[in-house]
């Protein structure tokens, strides 16, 4: 699942206002976890609305490799016949996670406390990303690890005969690290404790509870989240409906705000409080965004998001908000390019270790399109309102969110914007181009025609 051999340049250009009611695909975080927890339960889990993107399909393959039977039914529902915690089979060959950081890190957690060997590989982007943040707590639990220098992929692990439950304070705000430790704790006897000084998305905790695990969350005196999980539960299969991904909804939301005359509704979007930082920020910037039809399904809040083109103003985004919008900074930078004045975004150090160094990739992309910005080690300032923006070609570095963000820029810029590789969008949002075309956007696979 590598895009390195077949890049697909795409160009977007300004056209009519964006209009209509759309639905973006299922949430990526919940889709990965549905497949994983279904594989660990005994019996049949069903999943409606699974995100069928390359990242999530790589997780399905990995769960098949350890013995789960996963099928798509005629009505689109996925069934997962789980093999049960503690009974996972040793994979017969290397597990290729392509571009998927969540997939590989959470699967390392699951397999790391099982007494089986597994080897993980990924594409050029995933092979640069730090895995020590997950491998180190696994080492503490007794897992043997052999990894490339700097704890990068390829990496091989073999879990001990019996893993040790640990108490682990997560050193960086990362739901993947928190989740990997909890998932390893599932197959360790006794109580695994994760202390989370800064709260991150809580899908693992909520969904494990739904599958019947004994898991509790409390706050300690310092206000840190303390998550306690009792190992070796019998997980019960579930029927899951995956809500639409707020991180994918971010693209039509920003595109509608910055494209004059636009009026768009995005239906049934997940509104988990750890995922909605972008919406809060855009409303503070003056964005006309209303949440309609708020409701609850499967323990998560959902709503329809109605967005109209708006006059935006630059603001300072509190650093404390970063975990609730960590994947949305690239597209926020595009909104900031159309806002009056400066938008200052501090607390961005984690952006350096995403699918690309997103801070640098965004800054270079803005510069290539004539948008003034200042990048420091962990901050970005974007000055909005420049004249004659666009016309550049953006290097995506195998990063889907860089590709999609700069295509959104081209929809409202004075000149078309080209991204060097749109193929990587398949990792999270396969219907991106068709959905945007349905709303009236102009995206072309042939840059010379569009320009
Ligand atoms: C995710 C956690 C975040 C996020 C990623 C999905 C998850 O990563 O960026 O897209 O599903 O747990 P980090 O844990 O590295 O912050």
UniProtKB/TrEMBL annotation:
It catalyses: 3-phosphoshikimate + phosphoenolpyruvate = 5-O-(1-carboxyvinyl)-3-phosphoshikimate + phosphate. Its main location: cytoplasm. This is 3-phosphoshikimate 1-carboxyvinyltransferase. Phosphoenolpyruvate binds at residues 28, 101, 129, 176, 358, 401. InterPro entries: Enolpyruvate_Tfrase_dom, Enolpyruvate_Tfrase_sf, EPSP_synthase, EPSP_synthase_CS, RNA3'P_cycl/enolpyr_Trfase_a/b. The gene is aroA. It is an enzyme of class 2 (transferase). It is found in: Cytoplasm. The active site is at residue 327. It comes from the Bacteria. Its EC number is 2.5.1.19. It comes from Roseibium denhamense. Keywords: Amino-acid biosynthesis, Aromatic amino acid biosynthesis, Cytoplasm, Transferase.
